[in-house]
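User: Continuing from earlier, I have the next pair ready.

Assistant: Great, send them over.

User: Here they are, in order.

Assistant: Folding the first of the pair now:
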Amino acid sequence: MSSQLPAVVVPAFIPSPSQGVWHLGPLPLRAYAICILIGIFAGYWLGRKRWVARGGTPEVLADIIMWAVPFGLVGARIYHVITDNELYFGEGKHPIDALKIWHGGLGIWGAVGFGLLGAWIACRRHKVPFLAVADVMAPGVALAQVVGRFGNYFNQELFGKPTTHFWGLKIDSGHRPEGYADFATFHPTFLYEAIWNLGVVALVILVDKRFKLGHGRAFALYVAGYTAGRAWVENLRIDTVNHFLGLRLNVWTALILFVLSVAYLVITSRTKPGQESVVTAPATPEGDEPVEAAEGEKAADGGEDEAADNDVPAAASDDGDKAKVGAVPADESATSSSAASATSSSAAAEPEPPAVPAEPADESPRPPVKDNPSTPDADRD
């Protein structure tokens, strides 16, 4: 008895989404924007866990993110429009299209640069170390890029050269660039970069856990790791961009940032080892002293005064005569506390003998001495 196994159809390519926009009534839901928002929340989630582990408060980081994200989005669009200005300005172009961010076109370099500027402003407001915030958020930024790259997948953009491999990405004819109309499948560079960035996330977390990266080194490691992969992926892409000395502009940017980040890692690992603290405490008002120090100083300064007070004889006469041997009078001790404090160390080294109170003078009238005929004249004198 023979049996037939059902045939399993394995596609020879990765299909592209049939649509990237859904309408909820008059409101369009764009996959590109959704991917970016999910990436932001994923990056914040990871950064928040690392920030709390370092001793920071989540409220502070949330406010920093509220500054960094708008700055990053604006910067990403500005960088794209500047470096690809021929897409929006010139004959037959519509400059208003530069504002249509939902059509794609966000430069990661501008996003990171302007995002750091917004974070720096917020860090100054909260008086927390900016480089520590950059370190804890470094793998979160890479994670946000992982999710955000799928927005390019839904838009069918930023793909690579044609390929016949089974992981090739099928692109609809309306999205194929000029000169590639006869090719159906292309390198899925969005997927390459997403997988690479997952590796960068793991790299930063593991190295930071092992070596306790601080003073911006975790962020520098993220930059070095990301730019190394971006330079390779960028060379596979076929979208129209500006070139400089035979290389795509983004390749030059990646190479320069890679060199700078590696140099920063090497230099700061020697000049600023370890991690900075992110725990902030309210500053002590100027002029205030700890209670323990004040009490200790009081005891040191007032030691002799208390001794002097204790040395006052109880048999002092009613007329206020308080003379005694080896004791400091109370009225002098009240006006010479600084002198007592200056001599306290020598007094401690060589203690004085305990003061012996002098017997009070007996000023009561004595009865007259009667002449004793048996007493010699010399004794009577």
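And the other member of the pair:
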Amino acid sequence: MRKARHIDISTRLEATKRLGLLEDYRVDWDKPLGAPRITVRGRPAYPAQITKNYIADLLSELVTAREIVVTRPSRA
């Protein structure tokens, strides 16, 4: 179940990345049977809250919104 869930989460996030809403993402499984923690690096063009709302809606069947963290891209 965990592997299938991880693949489903990654597939959705990868599609969102290709569409340009995210720069990158990470899925961490801290507890073997717990919920994953999703960290996404947003794009500067989109406010962090908009990104979080979109990702929370996209993954609502798989992850609770409190397990999603949006970071800002580093400025080079």
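Worth noting for the second one:
Residues 2-64 form one domain. The chain has a mean pLDDT of 91.
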